[in-house]
Amino acid sequence: MQRIVYRTSEKVKGFAWLLMISFALWLALSSKLDLQDLLIGGVVCLIVSFFSAHTYTKLRLPPLNVKRVLFSLVYVIVLFWEIIKANFDVAYRVIHPRMPIKPGIVVIKTSLKSDIGKLVLANSITLTPGTFTLDIIGDKLLIHWINVKAEDIDEATNIIGRRFEKYLRVIFT
Q: How far apart are the first and last CA of the chain?
């Protein structure tokens, strides 16, 4: 078994990014912003980042920069919007008298090269109600779709995957 050695600069960058991201998350979830809460949040984030930095480095994520962070924020907004739209679509199908569904399994193709990018795409598809990623095989994803609108791989890819992939391509390339 080959042991991978990471440079100190990679470890420091991983630690710094994890600290910033976890502290931003702490601030977003905190109900109070007084000094005591900020100090406790900072200490907890320091400890978590210290013990998790090696995992961040092992994931071989692309280096973070302002462009990737901005695209990530936009991606989260797009993902939440798609989840909301899909929830209304599925709710309509549930309350409609004839329950208009045409379930099936389709294959979509991705141009993402990194495994972590494919994983995020698969999870994003699964998070939107009405679709569920069954498997990832190379550059193809096997999707269960509650209402199959297209069986052609290119058309299904455009309907299901492209809305996420255009952001993920920038984030994970």
A: 28
